[in-house]
Amino acid sequence: MRFKELPTAIKQSARAGLGLVIVATLTLEATAIIQFAYSQKGIKEEASMRAQSEMEATKLKIIDIVDQTETAVRNSIWIASWCLNVPDSIKNITHRLVEDNPVIMGSTMAMVPGYLKKYPLFSPYSCINPETGEIELKTLATQEYDYPSQEWFTKPIEFDAGYWSEPYIDEGGGNVLMTTYSMPIHDEKGRIAAVLTADISLDWLTELVGNVQVYSSAYSLLFSRAGQIMVCPAESLIMKRSIVEMAAESKDSSTYGELSRAILSGSAGNQAINTNGSKKYVYYAPIERTGWSMSIVIPESEVFASIRRMGMMIKFLQILGIALIIVILWIFTKNQLKYKLLEENKEKMESELHIARSIQMSMLPNIFPPFPERHDIDMCADLVPAKEVGGDLYDFYIRDEKLYFCIGDVSGKGVPASLVMAVTRSLFRTVSGHEKSPQRIVTMMNDSMSDMNDNNMFVTFFCGVLDLATGHLRYCNAGHNAPLIFRDSIEMLPVVPNIPLGVIPGMTFQEQETDMHYDDALFLYTDGLSEAENIEHELFGEDRMKEVMSVRRYSQEHLKAMQKAVAEFVGEADQSDDLTMLFIHYLNAERPDSSERHLILHNDIQQIPQLADFVETIADEVKLDQSLVMSLNLALEEAVTNVILYAYPEGSDGLVEVEAILKPGSLEFILTDSGKPFDPTSVPDADVSLAAEDRKIGGLGIYLVRNIMDTVSYKREEGKNVLSMTKNV
Amino acid sequence: MEVFINKTDSETTVRFVGRLDTPASADVFKALDPVINDASGTIILDCKEMSYISSSGLRIFLTLRKAASAKGGRIIVKDICNDIRQVFMMTGFLNLFEIQ
After folding, report:
1. pLDDT of A671-682, one tens digit each?
2. Are residues A562 and A422 in the same domain?
3. Band of pLDDT at residue A591, cut at 50, 70 and 90
4. What is the pLDDT of residues A285-341, one digit of tens each?
5. Is A694 within 8 Å of chain B by CB?
6. Where are the domains of chain B?
7. Which chain B positions have a beta carbon within 8 Å of A612's beta carbon?
8. Residue A625: which domain range?
9. How far apart are alpha carbons B83 and A232 in whole angstroms?
């Protein structure tokens, strides 16, 4: 199952990763598109603004020259009208105009034909010789030229106003592009007598307009009133082509036509056109007074060159970013997988440890009471490892009426300690199976453990053999804590420390012995108890142990009380070490001089026959009358049943101790239990005189006890119910 | 303790053998369940081989007695030994049962 899950996990992560990449790509793309759209708009606006401001600047410069020219001509009109009657002085006016105004290349004052009687045609022309730079005087009143039919002459007369002529190539004046401003001159009668002109070269215009560089591959055009190209990067087209012709030739003639009409009508604006397959933006504006129109043509590719560069950069960053995301995802997925494997390993290990723990626990006797059929011994043990598995151990069993028991603590904790623990416990069983002496058991175990101890693990160990018949205890310590012994008071069992198992092979351990009497007890523990630490790092210590133990109880309650005390003491602190306790309560009543008899029963109703046997035995001993035996039996059964059924909470193990004291003339039975306080003597007698229908089902037991026994008394002592019943015999 | 129940048309005989102590009572009570439920006829409790009775045993007797008087039945206790008779006397049971 686990292996099948892995590919699914990979697929899932891969799918999630792919999703993430797609989302990231889409987001980036959308951002780029939005940004592009906004930038495009901005850049278009910027281009338009740049074109317009350039055009405006150029226009101002052009108008400046136009103004200069117009002003010069206008200022000469007054003096010219004076000279109408003095034709010979006219040349002076034209000469002055050229001389005083550097922009003016030539000037003429052309008389309306027939105005002068003397000269039907009269037009002195002053102009700069391009080679010498001198001002020469010519006349335009020639047959070939026919000035009265020239535009510069006819138009101002027609409009009776200043007029800028269409640009023209002046072949006589060095093939320069020229334009002429001409103004009519009125005589004193108000008739138009002549036209005063000023020619200006448009070379500067080419320079001025041609130098407008909005973008590197943008260019400027200047159209005349008639749509002729005046300024153009392609010089061959100058004065050879008009915008109308260009529009007609274009494939995109409709937009072109629109553009040419707009330009010719002298309006300002912009238009996108397609020429030779590339898109261009044309910005145009009129130059007032002259009738000219200036245009700036910017290829779209140029306008958006920067944005395209930016777009490329963004694309590059996008690809880089997505690649980065993919790499990160890949690393992340790989790590995740590694982590998952690790987690699974951990789970597996934990489950194995859990199994190991239950194996370890099942090695130890763990059913309590361990010997329910015996009344001479009451035992309980408990082991709580600090980790899942631990290095503490205990063991006990009865062989040949001897209790073999041990407790031990392997150095260290966890799995290594648990392995040594298992070995130690097996060794104990093997060796003690055929050895009666604790000293021999410990010595043999030590030899065998020292032999194979490559890891320098050692075990503190205490081993005892208790003769259940006599109470004689032989024990041998191997570096373990001295157990507590309960006699009249609680003391440390005197022990020779010796050294732990597994340290020195061939070591001889010293055996010790003592005698245990009825109700004596032995409490064995590991340092997990005595050295249990609370949060302030204080140790639980022997004094606290003794204090808890000072109340006499049965083994199981002793351990419960101890567990509770340790848990309260330790509080929030972590359990620092394995904690093991073994409590052995010796209860053999077979004392040689005894006039007392003891019986310990568990709170199990099936133990009642043992009570009957017990009473039978005592009755035999004192040779009681058979019917009295039955009465005693009945009384005791009722009293004990009462304890068994009601003293302890349901399902919990409890004991009831029966002590028989043989006295001359009387037999005393003392029942002791540590259940909840209950005084049977305080219960009112059942009314035995009632009719069957009125009789209660219960209440007869205690009534019988009271009726059979001669005295019944109850006391609560040291947390126990003590019921004393005497029968005179 | 063993209980033998013998039911004829006219009467039901329950024979107790052994000690009717507390541990035995639970089983006996269960065994006598049909007799308690059908206590309208004559029920003979044969105690010849009963050596001992505890209060829980007496309780069974009382239960039978109550069931019988509720359903118009009749309980006859036969052949009780002296020791048990003494217990019956002590507990007032002698007055509750017809003893033969």
Report:
1. 999 888 988 888
2. yes
3. very low
4. 898 878 888 888 888 887 777 778 888 888 898 889 889 988 988 898 888 889 999
5. no
6. 2-99
7. 19, 21
8. 596-728
9. 149
Q: Which of A637, A693, A700 sits opposite B91 (nearest CB)?
A: A700
Per-residue pLDDT of A37-65, as tens digits, reads 888 888 888 888 888 888 888 888 888 88
Closest-CA residue of chain B to A692: B96
What is the total count of domains within chain A? 2
- Cα nearest neighbour of B61 on chain A: A697
Asked if the structure places residue A572 within a domain, the reply is yes
A416-435 residues labelled b (16+ CB within 10 A) or e (exposed): ebbbbbbbbbebbeebbeeb
Q: What pLDDT does residue A185 have?
A: 92
User: 3-class secondary structure for A556-612?
Assistant: HHHHHHHHHHHHHHHCCCCCCCCEEEEEEEECCCCCCCCCEEEEEEECCHHHHHHHH
Please list every residue in chain A whose beta carbon sits closer than 8 Å to the beta carbon of residue B26.
Answer: 605
- In this structure, the number of other CB atoms found within 10 A of the CB of residue A599 comes to 24
Residue of B21, B69, B90 lying closest to A692 (CB–CB): B69
What is the residue type of A325? I
Q: Looking at the structure, do residues A702 and A670 belong to the same domain, yes or no?
A: yes
| Assigned domain for A178 exists | no
Quote the ipTM score: 0.91
The residue to which tokens 């029920």 are assigned: B43
Contact B86 A693 (CB under 8 A): no
Residue that terminates a domain, selected from A586, A605, A627: A586
CB–CB of A147/A106 below 8 Å?
no
Q: For position A430, which CATH number holds?
A: 3.60.40.10
In a domain, A620, yes or no: yes
Residues A700, B59: C-beta atoms closer than 8 Å = yes
Q: Which residue has the higher pLDDT, A553 or A132?
A: A132
CATH for B2-99 (3.30.750.24, 3.30.2000.30, 3.40.50.150, 2.40.128.20): 3.30.750.24
Q: For tokens 């109308």, name the residue.
A: A244
Q: Are residues A502 and A617 in the same domain?
A: no
Q: Do B22 and A612 touch (CB under 8 A)?
A: no
Mean pLDDT across chain B: 90
pLDDT at residue A531 greater than cutoff 80: yes
Nearest Cα neighbor of A505 from A462, A411, A442, A460 is A442
CATH of the domain at A652: 3.30.565.10
A window 670-689, beta carbon within 8 A of B:
686, 688-689
